[in-house]
Write a structure and sequence with these properties.
Layout lengths: L3 E9 L4 H12 L5 E6 L2 E4 L10 E10 L3 H14 L14 E7 L4 E3 L2 E3 L8 H10 L4 E2 L3 E2 H4 L8 E5 L4
Antiparallel strand pairs: 1-4, 1-5, 2-4, 3-4, 3-10, 6-7, 8-9
Length: about 160
């Protein structure tokens, strides 16, 4: 069984966002052939794209998984659906968003699956929590998380508290 480190971005801004992110983390821990190896602190961040919505709560989790990338993505989408995620329009408010950010050192471009996640290197709400738990994580084609964090505006992101008390 080949185990890969995968990084998942979590975000929510509806229906008690902190609780939604915590529930998402609990569901990640229940995935088969998968272990949650690290969880960042929770962060509050301003919305991107569609600005007329509440701030988000974000985190990043490191998984050690034997699930293939597509199977893992499908599992993430099922968790979102169980948590009431609706996809009304791009950047819409959401109960829970789970993004497959990195999957080992793989680069994948398939319908519905792009790894590394597009624009993750430009988004403080992803790079700040990723750097907290994995400063040496490499975003293929972009560099190390700890170097990427220097090139994003971190003023829109503030630490709330540790993800696990």
């Amino acid at each position: 069984m080949n185990v890969v480190a995968a990084y998942i971005g979590l975000g929510a801004n509806l229906d008690e966002p902190e609780q939604q992110v915590r529930a998402g983390l609990q569901e990640l821990a229940l995935l088969p052939e998968t272990r949650v190896a690290a969880i960042s602190s929770l962060y509050r961040s301003a919305p991107v794209g569609f600005l007329d919505q509440p701030d988000f709560v974000n985190a990043v989790a490191r998984l050690e998984t034997a699930l293939p990338a597509r199977v893992l993505l499908d599992a993430l989408l099922r968790i979102e659906q169980r948590r009431g995620r609706l996809r009304e329009f791009t950047n819409a408010p959401r109960t829970l968003d789970l993004d497959l950010l990195l999957y080992g050192d793989e680069e994948v471009t398939e319908p519905g699956l792009t790894i590394p996640h597009p624009r993750m290197h430009e988004r403080a709400f992803v790079i700040v929590p990723l750097t907290e738990i994995a400063p040496d994580a490499i975003v293929p084609g972009r560099g190390r998380a700890r170097d990427l964090v220097r090139s994003v505006d971190t003023h829109s992101v503030s630490k709330l508290e540790a993800a696990q008390s």
